[in-house]
């Protein structure tokens, strides 16, 4: 591995319940072609195709997604798949990968299902962050906010370091709407994109300092784990003792070495149907339709149907998703609550919230 290459570490977990009924256990969010013909996972992997700049990727996933990951990687035999014994959030997942790398290896940690439209801007920022990482910084990529989103973390930049970096002065995790509006209005906060760059050894050092029990349990699960071809299976009993925690809470909010690199790129976590709508091409009225649909006198309407024809008249800020026998209709502002209804929908839900 070249000391100038980055190691992509792809975090592939979660159920994507807010994108029900498309996203299900049998076909979860990363493996859906929600934006274009390729799945979100395939789009993520395509950003690291240049092997002169990127080392073979590592994918951290759960047993329930291994078949999907393996199929999506195809004959990319140099990739490694780390199979988590159970989901323990991002701090543990990243630590698994870090323990399997040389301490000097620079990790580029990315979710498997985010939308990044400006790949070159993203890659340029990642390599700027890598320069800081080689000086011992733990770096988050930060994106200019476009709305008072409550589902994202926020970063306030401190003093400048390097050409484009800043020491992280403050982190705010998933604020309520009033706080989010205040952060946006201040002009001082950026979105935390959940994309991180650091050396494996530096991350493990901070984790040992800040969350020693978590660091020890992950290390034990690696020492007693087993490799099978391109799979690595951490040992279950040690891993099961871990208290699940995000990398933001466990490390970044508490580290004196936390930094950020701002990047001007179109980015979304594609976490809700409203986010899908915002990322898709829309007509002059803000409408987007996938599948057989006709929209008359509608504004800001998304229709996504896998077959049944949808006809809509006079709607505004509405989302309609049809998948087989399942139909979801929601306002854009309530799209984040679709996950409350999913759970594979074995019963008819209480409709009192419809008012």
User: What is the oligomeric state here?
Assistant: single chain
Bin the helical content. 25-40%
What strand line-up does the widest sheet have? Answer: 6-9-7-8-12
Give the biggest sheet: 5 strands, mixed, barrel
- Run of helices and strands: EHEHEHEEHEEEHEHHEEHHEEHEEEEEE
User: How many individual β-strands?
Assistant: 19
Residue stretches low in confidence (pLDDT < 50, at least 5 long) are 344-355
Assign the CATH superfamily of the largest domain: Spore Coat Polysaccharide Biosynthesis Protein SpsA, Chain A
Strand content: 25-35%
Number of domains: 2
Description of the molecule:
The protein is α/β, with parallel strands linked by helices. The chain folds into 2 domains: 262 residues, Spore Coat Polysaccharide Biosynthesis Protein SpsA, Chain A; 82 residues, no CATH class. It contains 10 helices and 19 strands. The strands form 4 sheets. A 5-stranded mixed beta barrel has the order 6-9-7-8-12. Strands 14-16-18-19 form a 4-stranded mixed sheet, with helices on one face. Strands 5-13 form a two-stranded antiparallel sheet. The radius of gyration is 21 Å and the shape is globular. The C terminus is likely disordered.
């Amino acid at each position: 591995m070249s000391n100038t290459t980055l190691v992509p570490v792809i975090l592939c977990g979660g159920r994507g319940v807010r994108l029900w009924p498309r996203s299900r256990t049998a076909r979860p969010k990363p493996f859906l072609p929600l934006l274009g013909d390729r799945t979100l996972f395939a789009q993520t992997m395509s950003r690291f195709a240049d092997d002169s700049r990127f080392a073979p990727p590592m994918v951290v996933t759960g047993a329930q997604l291994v078949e999907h990951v393996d199929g999506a990687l195809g004959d990319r035999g140099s990739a490694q798949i780390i199979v988590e014994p159970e989901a323990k959030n991002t701090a543990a997942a990243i630590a698994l990968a870090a323990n399997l790398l040389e301490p000097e290896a620079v990790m580029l940690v990315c979710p498997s299902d985010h939308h990044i439209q400006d790949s070159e801007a993203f890659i340029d920022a990642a390599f700027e962050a890598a320069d800081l990482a080689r000086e011992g910084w733990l770096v988050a990529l930060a994106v200019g906010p476009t709305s008072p989103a409550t589902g994202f973390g926020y970063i306030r930049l401190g003093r400048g370091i390097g050409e484009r970096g800043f020491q992280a002065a403050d982190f705010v995790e998933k604020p309520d709407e009033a706080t989010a509006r205040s952060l946006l209005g201040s002009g001082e906060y950026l979105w935390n994109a959940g994309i991180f760059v650091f050396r494996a050894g530096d991350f493990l050092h901070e984790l040992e300092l800040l969350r020693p029990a978590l660091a020890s349990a992950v290390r034990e699960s690696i020492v007693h784990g087993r490799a099978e071809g391109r799979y690595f299976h951490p040992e279950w009993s040690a891993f099961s003792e871990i208290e699940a925690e995000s990398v933001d809470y466990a490390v970044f909010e508490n580290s004196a070495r936390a930094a950020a690199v701002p990047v001007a790129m179109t980015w979304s976590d594609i976490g809700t149907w409203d986010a899908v709508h915002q990322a898709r091409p829309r007509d002059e009225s803000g409408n987007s339709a996938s599948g057989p649909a006709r929209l008359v006198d509608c504004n800001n309407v998304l229709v996504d149907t896998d077959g049944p024809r949808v006809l809509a008249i006079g709607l505004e800020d509405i989302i309609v998703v049809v998948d087989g026998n399942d139909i979801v209709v929601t306002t854009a502002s309530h799209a984040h609550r679709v996950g409350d209804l999913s759970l594979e929908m074995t019963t008819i839900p209480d409709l009192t919230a419809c008012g």
